[in-house]
Sequence to fold (242 residues):
Amino acid sequence: MGYTFPAREQRGAMAFTHIVFDLDETLYPRDAGLMQEIGRRITLWVQQSLGLTAEEANSLRRSYLRRYGTTLGGLIAEQQVDVDHYLAFVHDVPVERYIQPHPALAAMLDSLPLRKAIFTNATSEHARRVLRALGVADRFEQVVGIRELDLCNKPDPKTYRRLLALLDARAEDCILVEDRAVNLRPGKRMGMTTVLVDGVSEEGVDFVVEYVLEVGPLVTRLLGRGRYGWRLPPGLGGMRGG
Ligand SMILES: [Mg+2]
Fold:
């Protein structure tokens, strides 16, 4: 598969000011197990709060995820729930058991000459705990979590506008990195350049990388600083444009 480039890039190096990373399963891999543990606690909370069986709770979660992007999004829209209790309960997990320091990630982030932010549907407290466990907490200028987003979650377009306001940035100046294509699409529509981690290219995705560390060489190339110019040798970095 060849690489595809946004039109702007074909005119020369792209100018970006910010790079925005999703947190969970973007900065660390899916098989870390942390989100599975959080998922178990979300199901338990839904079960206990709404008086459902595990099967009913899981089925409701799937429906909410599809329609609202997150379980909490569905709970807020359709139920009377104690949001603070929910957020505290589902994130009450031993993060450090799942996430270890990742010096290569820190080095990759240091190689990016851009302002860095986290944009997550989790709380900023959870995000900071994960960032500390990874050893990269001081690399991010801003952590934008669900409360900073006024309890509105990705992929609602409102959250992306709120993010840009908090960053004081224009969409065109931002690179958005995420493990879910559905959460890249609104950013892409607004003009962000999008990078999908560990997924399959689809609408709204400019670039796909297999692992977050590959974001470093990709961004270097987009900024026109790569030694390979516009075209990487086939297979390098496992990138697939799309
Ligand atoms: Mg994620």
Observations:
- The CA atoms of residues 117 and 142 lie 5 Å apart.
- The pocket of magnesium ion is lined by residues 22, 24-26, 179-180 (CB under 6 Å).
- The chain has a mean pLDDT of 90.
